[in-house]
Design goal:
mainly alpha; two-stranded antiparallel sheet
């Protein structure tokens, strides 16, 4: 018979997975839906399928880390599991109120750490490894995309420019009763290949989201033994799919304030780098934030693109001379240059060399707002800290752990 406490735990797990599905679908398939390559219904179906695949394969490692490596699995009584999941749900509420994509992975780890400290039984070696990757991963994401933005992006923009034609991408013909897709009359080969690539990368992003996020919804329940690992993954993936088919429709419409504010090529670069990084960490069993990595990729790509206005040796020489005009952004009043226009401007077929681009073309609108970024980073630090402190206080006052 299903106990009331287990029913509450399962409900909270579904709530967490539901919200993860709603937000992750917009991040993964926003570019594909925004460019009319795939419908919202199609995006939801692909998100559900690939999130399940990611959770069922790579995501197992993260569930095991969060469900028994940070603290012993026997600490996860059913009551303690519900308490930990409550803090994950609270993080989602806080992130929604502030409009910031808080990391559910970081918050869940914070709550588990609070439990371990309160119980006096926590593996600080595992915690140190996780926190180290939390610091390293955003730096890696920033610099990989900064290098791409500075040295490769203009060439990619020329080589892989996708010019969309009028009308549908494909049409359907039939062999008897069986329909099959064929390119529409106005669809060029380059557009078709590029559109397929957009969908493939979106599916890869969904795989990465599933790999990193199923643990956030069910790791405590799996650790407590209330549900098995396989059943927990199926529960989390089902909840993510439910979110993809329901509330994700709104996030797909409003994701323009996120990744799809970038042009399609830039969004795809961000998705490939961030998804690869999170998939690698999930394989290693490290719970990490896809939202944090994707945001640092955006900042790095814009910054690297803007620095093409100045060569490294010129900037170094200006710094030695003490010139105030040595700003990589050009003469912009000292404001760091990371601009949407730098990424959305129509590319020339012949790419200008570094140092030859007009700074005015790279700094007409800011992609990177220091104040907004400061608020985001503050909340990324604050939410797991609050989760850990609140969890410690709860489990110290109410020792419901094993």
């Amino acid at each position: 018979m299903l106990s009331p406490l287990l029913a509450v735990g399962l409900a909270v797990a579904v709530f967490v997975g539901f919200n993860i599905g709603g937000s992750s679908t917009g991040v993964a398939f926003g570019p594909a839906v925004g460019s009319n390559v795939v419908s919202k219904l199609g995006a939801a179906g692909l998100m559900a399928g690939f999130a399940l695949l990611g959770g069922w394969t790579v995501g197992r490692n993260v569930v095991e880390t969060m469900g028994g490596d940070i603290v012993p699995a026997d600490l996860f009584t059913l009551g303690a599991s519900v308490g930990v999941l409550f803090f994950v749900g609270l993080a989602l509420l806080v992130s929604n109120l502030f409009g910031v994509p808080a990391s559910t992975s970081m918050t869940a780890v914070g709550a588990i750490a609070g439990l371990g400290v309160a119980a006096g039984d926590i593996d600080w070696g595992v915690m140190g490894q996780i926190v180290s990757w939390w610091l390293v991963a955003p730096i890696v994401a920033f610099w990989v995309c900064a290098v791409v933005g500075r040295y490769l992006y203009p060439y990619l923009d020329v080589w892989f420019r996708i010019d969309q034609s009028e009308g549908p991408l494909v049409e359907y013909e039939r062999v008897g009763p069986i329909p099959y897709p064929v390119p529409a009359p106005n669809t060029g080969r380059r557009e078709l290949v590029g559109s397929v690539l957009v969908v493939v990368i979106a599916c890869y992003m969904a795989f990465s989201a599933g790999a990193s996020n199923v643990a956030n919804a069910v790791a405590p329940l799996v650790g407590s033994g209330a549900v098995s690992l396989d059943h927990g993954i199926l529960l989390a993936a089902g909840a993510i799919g439910l979110g993809a088919f329901t509330i994700a429709r709104r996030t797909l419409d409003t994701v323009g304030s996120g990744l799809t504010e970038l042009p399609l090529l830039a969004a795809l670069v961000v998705e490939v780098v961030s998804a690869s990084l999170i998939t690698l960490l999930s394989y290693l069993g490290i719970p990490a934030s896809l939202a944090v990595s994707a945001t640092m990729c955006i900042v790095g790509l814009g910054w690297g693109r803007a620095t093409r206005a100045v060569r490294v040796r010129d900037a170094a020489a200006a710094a030695v001379r003490g010139d105030e005009g040595g700003d990589t952004a050009g003469e912009s009043g000292g404001n760091s240059a990371m601009s949407v226009d730098a990424l959305t401007a129509e590319p020339d077929d012949e790419v200008q060399r570094i140092g030859e681009e007009d700074p005015a073309d790279l700094d007409t609108a800011d992609l990177f707002d220091p104040a907004a970024t400061g608020r985001v980073v503050t909340l990324w630090i604050l939410t797991p800290t609050i989760s850990a402190v609140a969890s410690f206080a709860l489990f110290t006052l109410v020792p419901i752990y094993g």
